[in-house]
Amino acid sequence: MTDQDREQQELLQKEAQFWDLQEDKIDSLYARPHDWRFIPKLAEIIIRPRVNTLLRLLKTHKDRIKSLVDIGCGNGWLCHATAKRGIYSIGIDLSEKKIATAKRMAREQGIEHMCEFVAGDVMQWRPKEKVDLLTSHGSLHHFPAFAVALDHMVQNHMKPDGFMLFVEPNHEGMAPAVAQFLLKCAKNKWLKPHFDLDFYLEVTGQPALEVPPPAAHAAANEMNVRNESPAGKEFFGEHLDLDLFFRTHFEVIERHFYHYFSSHGTNAFYVFMKSRVLRFLWRLALPCMVWRDTRLLRDPKYQQYAEDGLWFMRRKLPTAP
Ligand SMILES: C[S@@+](CC[C@H](N)C(=O)[O-])C[C@H]1O[C@@H](n2cnc3c(N)ncnc32)[C@H](O)[C@@H]1O
After folding, report:
1. pTM of the predicted model, to two decimals?
2. 293 lines ligand 1 (CB under 6 A)
3. Which residues contact 13 (CB under 8 A, 6 or more apart)?
4. pLDDT for 168-216, tens place per residue?
5. Domain endpoint, select from 220, 241, 276
6. Ligand 1 near 132 CB (within 6 A)
7. Which of 140, 192, 276, 309 gives the lowest tally of CB atoms within 10 Å of its CB?
8. HSE, side-chain direction, 13 A CA sphere, residue 7
9. How far is 141 from 3, CA to CA, in rounded Å?
10. How many angstroms separate the alpha carbon of residue 224 from the centre of ligand 1?
11. What is the CA(93)–ligand 1 centre distance, in A?
């Protein structure tokens, strides 16, 4: 085994440990959220547009999509949703704990016969038969050798005329305009009392707010499940322009961008807001904000700052000589 292989194996072990730890802590994360993803009622509102798109795409292509592999399936929510719609769904994930949860949830929902879950490294695994659709919801960016990994999965897991449906982070951090707006709010004499800036910095270390987190804190956070995972950390910076990557390598049938202001704004205002009244008002206003984001993000000048992107793709057809 080469040094590189050993390093790779260690990274995978850390990655699996990280996601096992997250699964262990999932209840306490919900109990003290700092992030909209851990507040189910808000998460539902914020991700509704992308779930609607996912379901519409699956419905439109239902004659062509009968089976799928979900890369890094986590607790299996996507497989559960697709299995219920008659698609045989295979989820694979490094975290044994997440796979145990996925299996339990499938049993609870009576859909075990329509899905299967495998604990392990997707790169070391082969399906019995290639599938019609490859999906990843927030998992591809946890593969450090992303391009190699994706090529491997497309070659080995997907039928030649299959589809890919990926939802991945599109931009790290917030758009400068959003960061400036939040900073202004945090300094505003009326809003300041409601904005827990210290906590905000503690959990996010947002350099955009001009106060860097103390170095000691960053080091202590190494295995903090609120952080980016060990392998995910390697991804950001190097491969961030996923949109360009996908458009270069595949035929993009549809692409959509999500969250310009709604998700960062929610973290800044809702979670860190001390006033219950303001939190309540934010919740009421959120559907409008999501709607506004969705409209804004049709414009390419905002797309580069969208927090998440969705790409529905297939292989490029060979061009005639
Ligand atoms: C951000 S989570 C997303 C989970 C899920 N798709 C969701 O939407 O909740 C990324 C997942 O990718 C998994 N993962 C990372 N590298 C992997 C690998 N090489 N093989 C299988 N799963 C992997 C992790 O264990 C983790 O559960």
Report:
1. 0.87
2. no
3. none
4. 988 777 777 887 787 777 778 888 787 777 766 665 555 544 444 444 4
5. 220
6. no
7. 276
8. 6
9. 23
10. 16
11. 6
168 lines ligand 1 (CB under 6 A): no
39 plus 76 within the same structural domain: yes
Give the structural domain span for 192.
176-220
Give me the DSSP letters along 28-48.
HHHHS-SSGGG-HHHHHHHHH
- What's the mean per-residue pLDDT of the chain? 86
Is residue 321, in this structure, part of any structural domain at all?
A: no
List, edge to edge, every strand of the sheet that includes 308-315: 115-119, 88-93, 67-71, 131-137, 158-169, 308-315, 250-258
For residue 96, CA distances in Å to 18, 118, 320 come to: 11, 8, 46
Tell me if 139 CB under 6 Å of ligand 1. yes
Residues 85 and 188 in one domain: no
d(CA 98, ligand 1 centre) in Å: 9
Residue 141 Cβ contacting ligand 1 at under 6 Å: no
Strands (DSSP E) found in the chain = 67-71, 88-93, 115-119, 131-137, 158-169, 250-258, 308-315
Q: What pLDDT, on the 0 to 100 scale, is given for residue 30?
A: 78
pLDDT tens profile 230-285: 777 666 666 678 898 999 999 999 999 999 999 888 887 787 777 888 888 889 99
Atom 5 of ligand 1, residue of closest alpha carbon: 74
73 and 128 part of one domain: yes
